[in-house]
Amino acid sequence: MSWRGIIEAYRPFLPVSNKTPVVTLNEGNTPLIFSPRLSEMVGREASVYIKYEGLNPTGSFKDRGMTVAISRAIEKGSRAVICASTGNTSAAAAAYAARAGIDCFVLLPKGKIARGKLAQALMCGAKVIALRGNFDDALRLVRDIGENYPVAIVNSTNQDRIEGQKTAAFEIVDVLGEAPDYHFLPVGNAGNITAYWKGYREWREAGRSKKLPKMMGFEAAGAAPIFHEKVIKKPDTVATAIRIGNPASWKQAEMAISQSHGLMDIVTDDEILAAQKWLAMNDGIFVEPASAASIAGLIKCLGKASCRKCPLAAELRASLLPKAVTIVCTVTGHGLKDPDVVDLHHLKPVTVWPSRDRVIKAMGLSL
Ligand code: F0G
Predict the structure, then answer these.
(1) Which of 248, 294, 276, 328 shows the shortest CA–CA distance to 65?
(2) Helix (H) and strand (E) counts for the chain?
(3) Contact predicate 333/58, CB 8 Å
């Protein structure tokens, strides 16, 4: 039977009933792609897989949470939804709200949203309000408005979002037949790492796996409140999706890290961009900068000197790594969301007149 979205696939594990009107774009069931080169970099028969969440209908993992959040909002009689966003949540909210035929309001930090994401929200009919402020200002206002007006909040402060997003962990275990040893994720508002950890635990309780992964979260160095254990007033990073100084699921993320014996660490903008380019050039997977934080995190852990607290680095140094270690890195959003990033990589086409000789020369071949 064809795939009908995460609610139909995992209905008994989600907060829905037969009365819930399912609003879906057939999200989920995204590929888990083996990366031979990353596996080789880890060594010792390791297997590294990329969970390519950019292949969801609106190009990010947010669709998993949004199908549940919007379906439940409709069930409760909501006629409008609101979210704060660094871009992807707004794109998903706008699309699912359009599908449901309800109003969608989004509050965004002005000038800090990747072009593709803004286009998605506008094209799907959301009322887009650009704030002269950052994501944390937007979320504060959304919480206030959601409490005082008849609009349902669809940020990850809404538990339905977490419930939907946990299905990515289910899919990984279903494909691998067991949970991975390590799971690498970018961290912004910290909803996704919370959701994955919940998913892995529930799937183990359901008897689908025997083990749990170590959760490895990576914040951008300029927007790393959990790592620094303090609110960052002016977060800044090239990875605009995770430009957040006061994450909503802060405590839950800390719990996921400590319960799983994992790690919360940072990656610099240079490391993020290098990983983004590496993944595109070596695996053919073009992701947005924030998504590359998971790959940058894995590469950082493989470096010998860095990552002193890192369990993976420690195991590698001590040669304790079990044979055939399995690592999953989630890449959260599609590269096409943020095409302007190509300028930061100083990549551009070669321009020539349409003559055979000039094209041959531009190709680097001899005439
Ligand atoms: N990667 C991408 C591409 C994102 O858009 C986000 C969050 C994250 C990672 C981090 O996930 O917040 O659950 O820790 N984007 C939100 C948004 C904040 O508004 O689209 P998180």
Answers:
(1) 248
(2) 15, 10
(3) no
Identify the H or E element spanning 183. strand 182-186
| pLDDT single digits (tens) 49-75 | 999 999 999 999 999 999 999 999 999
| CB distance 51 to 70 below 8 Å | no
What burial class does residue 361 get, using C-beta atoms within 10 Å of its C-beta: 0-12 exposed, 13-18 middle, 19+ buried? middle
Structural contact between residues 24 and 64, judged by C-beta atoms closer than 8 angstroms:
no
Q: Are strands 103-109 and 80-84 parallel, antiparallel or unpaired?
A: parallel
- CA–centroid distance, 177 to ligand 1, in Å, is 27
Distance (Å) from CA 88 to ligand 1 centroid: 7
Write down the mean pLDDT value for the chain. 96
The residues facing 60 across adjacent strands are 333
Is residue 167 within 8 Å of residue 208, measured between CB atoms? no
What gap in Å lies between CA 95 and CA 202, rounded to an integer?
29
Pocket test for ligand 1, best of 136, 162, 189 (most atoms within 8 A of CB): 189
Question: How far apart, in whole angstroms, are the C-alpha atoms of residue 67 and residue 45?
Answer: 38
pLDDT tens digits, 188-242: 999 999 999 999 999 999 999 999 999 999 999 999 999 999 999 999 999 999 9
**What residues does ligand 1 touch, defined as CB less than 6 Å away?**
60, 62, 85-89, 156, 186-192, 241-242, 288, 290-291, 332-333
Of all protein residues, the one whose alpha carbon is nearest to atom 6 of ligand 1 is 241
Helix, strand, coil percent content, the chain, rounded in steps of 5:
45, 15, 40
- Spatial strand order in the sheet of 127-131: 127-131, 103-109, 80-84, 152-153
